[in-house]
Amino acid sequence: MFLNIAHRGDSSRAPENTLAAFEAGVEAGASAIELDLRCTADGHVVAMHDESVDRTTDGTGAVEQLTLEQVRKLDAGGWFDERFAGEGVPTLAEVFDRMVDRLPLVLHVKEDGCGIERTVIEEVNRRGVVDRVTVSSDQRGVLESIHRLAPDLATTWIAWFRDWRWWMWYVAGKVQRLQARRVAPPASQVTEAMVDYFHGRGIVVRAWGVGRDDRLAARLISLGVDGMTFDDPRRLTELLNTAAADTAADTAASTDKDSE
Questions:
Q1: Is the whole model's pTM more than 0.90, yes or no?
Q2: Measured distance CA(194)–CA(192) in Å, rounded
Q3: How many Cβ atoms are within 10 Å of 235's Cβ, its own excluded?
Q4: Catalytic-labelled residue, pool 44, 49, 108, 147
Q5: Which domain holds residue 78?
Q6: Which end of the chain is more exposed for a tag (fewer CB within 10 A), N or C?
Q7: Is 199 a catalytic site residue?
């Protein structure tokens, strides 16, 4: 099944990394919800992409310098639309409580060394949902910690290399050594040769950095990627349906031609 992953929730219809956005992702028919994780000053794990709260709340300051009590007082919805005024920054536990039984979660761990990995594993083990959670990160230490503490928990390495023609062999080897199940290359750098190379080594390819770019998403689908994070999961479903219809039409035309 193609991984239609709602990027920070359905962030086209609700403020990113909020329960409202995650609910919108469910309603949009996404196959999973992606969210970003950071630590507060007192060691709690919250959903937040940026190092600071400035862009997506009415507050200021680095997440790591704010306590959970301070973060809870922030409005994380009003900047997006007044309809979401008062929407809060959820903790990881709150996300699990609301979402994990409804859609799989893709947890993007943004920091290494503050204890996020242990908190994730505690929540997973407490609920018995190892098969409904994937941890992704560009930091190898995070994935190594996850595999050491919970070998059955699926992981994705988010890779950043520029010249993939020369680095595919290195990335594939590193993914295998990390015992990750997926690699997430930058969407703009994906090629058919790359997808084939990783697939030939049993590695799932999940692109990142697509945003809500229809043209780029359609190109990735045509190249055979296994999924992507996308801001508008409803639109991605439409693009997938269009691609499937085009493939079916091409197959039918080819069959008709062969029968002539």
A1: yes
A2: 5
A3: 16
A4: 49
A5: 3-259
A6: C
A7: no
Query: What is the C-alpha to C-alpha distance for residues 153 and 133, in angstroms, rounded to an integer?
Result: 7
pLDDT tens, N- to C-terminus, the chain (260 residues):
999 999 999 999 999 999 999 999 999 999 999 999 999 999 999 999 999 999 999 999 999 999 999 999 999 999 999 999 999 999 999 999 999 999 999 999 999 999 999 999 999 999 999 999 999 999 999 999 999 999 999 999 998 766 666 678 888 888 999 999 899 999 999 999 999 999 999 999 999 999 999 999 999 999 999 999 999 999 999 999 999 998 776 665 665 565 66
The CATH code of the domain that includes 233 is 3.20.20.190
Identify each DSSP E strand in the chain by its residue range: 3-6, 32-39, 45-47, 105-109, 133-137, 154-158, 182-184, 204-207, 227-230
Looking at the structure of the chain, the number of domains it has is 1
Structure tokens at 206: 């999940």
Catalytic residue from among 7, 44, 108, 147: 7
DSSP bridge pairs for 39:
45
